[in-house]
Amino acid sequence: MALNIFKTSFAKSFRFQPVFSRFYSVKKFSASHEWITVDNGVGTIGITDHAQKSLGDVVYVEIPEVGDQIELEGNVGAVESVKAASDLYSPVSGEILEANSKLIDKPKLINQSPEGEGWIFKIKLEDEAQLDNLMTSEEYAKLVGEDH
User: Fold this and answer.
1) Would you state the pLDDT for residue 7?
2) pTM higher than 0.85 for the full model?
3) Counting beta carbons within 10 angstroms of the beta carbon of residue 103, is it exposed (0 to 12), middle (13 to 18) or buried (19 or more)?
4) Is the separation of the CB atoms in 91 and 73 below 8 Å?
5) What is the extent of the structural domain holding 93?
6) Vertex 24: Cα angle to 31 and 145 (nearest 5)
């Protein structure tokens, strides 16, 4: 009986309300073939699988410096392969919090896991609204002509 009273009073006093915020992880894509996932205001950025396939075997990665302030679509480094070199642009503005130093000795991580262990840098987002201008995975797949 006491348990039923507790359940009833608890249920009446506690209301579920939806909370919409960017505390969940979202993956977005830029037209310049970078991806970003965001978790609690920190973005992890790398190049897409499509981009690494187009580049071929990656032999060198220039990573940004921790503490650098980066503008939206600002140059943050480069990825070089046996076929070509490609500049790397940030899909958002903010401060570089971390760079994947593993890529200095193991640039092929980008080929092996471009959207995983081959991430390039982490950034504290200046304005999360900039994410709204990026593509979903479905939109990016259409851009590059892949089925999704």
Assistant:
1) 43
2) no
3) buried
4) yes
5) 24-132
6) 25
